[in-house]
Amino acid sequence: MYRFLWRRLPGGTVLRLAVVLLLSGAAVAALWYVVFPWLAPRVPIG
């Protein structure tokens, strides 16, 4: 699966790596600032 996605990305290795890092950072930021704050009051901890 990852090989398929890697081949679908545009550009050479450096550009592909930059796109992967950018998309990964966007996913982490979305989780950190949107999903986790929404989920925190709904999860019973302690």
Description:
Helices cover 74% and strands 0% of the residues. The protein is built from two helices and no strands. It has helices spanning 2-8, 13-39. It starts with a helix and ends in a 7-residue tail after the last helix.
What sequence of helices (H) and strands (E) makes up the elements? HH
Report the oligomer: single chain
- Give me the secondary-structure category: mainly alpha
Give the CA-CA distance, first to last residue: 39 Å
Transmembrane segments: 12-35
Keywords: Membrane, Transmembrane, Transmembrane helix
Keywords:
transmembrane helix; transmembrane; membrane
Write the layout of secondary structure elements.
Blueprint: H1 2-8, H2 13-39
In short:
The chain has 2 helices and no strands. It has helices at 2-8, 13-39.
